[in-house]
Fold this sequence. Notes:
4 helices, globular
Amino acid sequence: MNGLDRFMEFVASGVFLCVGFRxxxxxxxxxxxxxxxxxxxxxxxPHATIVVVGVLExxxxxxxxxxxxxxxxxxxxMLALMMIAAGIYHVRRHEPAAPTVVLFLLTIFVIxxxx
Length: 115
């Protein structure tokens, strides 16, 4: 592992800390409703679900800061799986998924850097 890998872990941790805290404390608006052609999809996630996702993101981001060799890849893998789920959610709602893809690639870089 070189300095770039550790720097990217700090960047990923900072981004996910900010995103997670925003989900915990700043989520007050309702997502836009889906079109009538897709009634089987949910109209949005409940506030409690968003808070749980935010707590998981903050926990994984804090785990990225630890020097443990086994904890960092597991936290990054959890974040990568969450970004896959978030990407699917945004694509199904016809919302832009580019930020989710960038965060997914960032977590993949951390996983590969630790491998």
